[in-house]
Request: fold
Amino acid sequence: MKKYFCIDYDFTEMNFYSKVEALKRYSILCLALFVMTFGTSLAIRANLGSAPIACPPYVLSCIEGQSLTFGTLTFILHLIFVFAQYLLLRGDLKTKILRQIPLSLCFGFFTDLTMWLTKSFQWDNSVEGYAVRVLQLVVGTTLIGIGVSVQVRCRTLLLAGEGMISAIARIMKKEYGKVKIFCDIFLVLIGLIFSFLFFGFWRFDMIGFGTLFSAVYVGFVVRFVAKHTPWLETFFATDTVAEDPLVFETKEINTLPLVITIARMHGSGGHEIGQKVAERLGIKFYDKEIINKTAETLGISKKDVEDKDQFISNASFLEYIITDNGISKEKFSGRDGAIFLEQSRIIKEAAMESCVIIGRCADYILKDRPCCLNIFIRSNEDFAVKMVTGRTQLSENQAREVIRIKNRARANHYEKYTGLQWQNPDHYDIVINTAKIGIDTSVDLICNAVKVFFER
Reply:
């Protein structure tokens, strides 16, 4: 069965670069690596502290009497990262991980070259000298950010450090950014241990203000450059996707897996469409599973959750505060509010992997997720009646009444917890009328939309 490209590594169909396109991308990648290493060396020469990932090799390179250069030690560290990824990940990803080795060798060479080029960029501890050192730190970390942003645009290979973070994020099902913070702290701690072990004290010129500044400022520069330089895409062909799926983990917009949310009118076939889309894309499917998990966590019956899931009692009340990240603070009374909050938590947890989620305000709960396609499935009443009577023992009149009650309940549920209109097309990326195009065509339309989304 054909699978379409998705960020959660589940794909079999890919477009590979032409030789000319590949040469252009790898040439620009080398330039980006040089800019990154030059920025790293320039910042280190300010003697205010190295970038977090450079802490262990830089401290070791400063040990008197040892012959290994900073670049060589950086290459060794990258080999350790490659080996760790090889142990963590399975399947064909292992062969792609090995491609990071020549990239790491190039990075190590550029590190030594730029350390030689910047050896004269060192200043004393006078007021003027310190001011120049701070300025040099800012310039250096800015160059690191620019280099990282261009490297990501190349969509070729990850550096071993980025690949290591990506692998951990995948295994632990955590966001890339959060795992990166943890890894940065860990590397700084390793550098501190080396500092105390080999020098007997904390070397602030190796791990200091510049280390903290780099950890925060580089990410800001990457986001700024990515946002304000869309013209960089003109250097590359627009009809290709990355040769290495790991590369997408470094792009902020793609740090999350693909999630498809499907809101649907009763009898429109939305559940069946969601199942078929999940099967075709090779990703997980959530509908009744959310009810089961909610009931298990809250210690109530599945029937209670299902009854309260959309039929909201007038007695219950949910008070919520909306922020840029969705519902960040909630106060609730009654079982209905507890059910909604628990389902929100389950949906966010499920969205750590590529999946299809049916209903339950998932489009709103995940509204700030960039890798999320929100779909609304509708139909006319006659189509819905045929669908309902075809799978139940209800008469036509009974089916019409059930359809109206269910749709009214879903609209009330959505409005209660989001303050928005359920059928408003502004909330969705795609609105499909199954009465016009049918179930299978709807599945094809969604899968093609996913493919186009990632090719762009």
Notes: Confidence is low (pLDDT under 50) at residues 1-17, 238-255, 311-333. The longest strand covers residues 326-333. Residues 127-154 form the longest helix (28 residues).
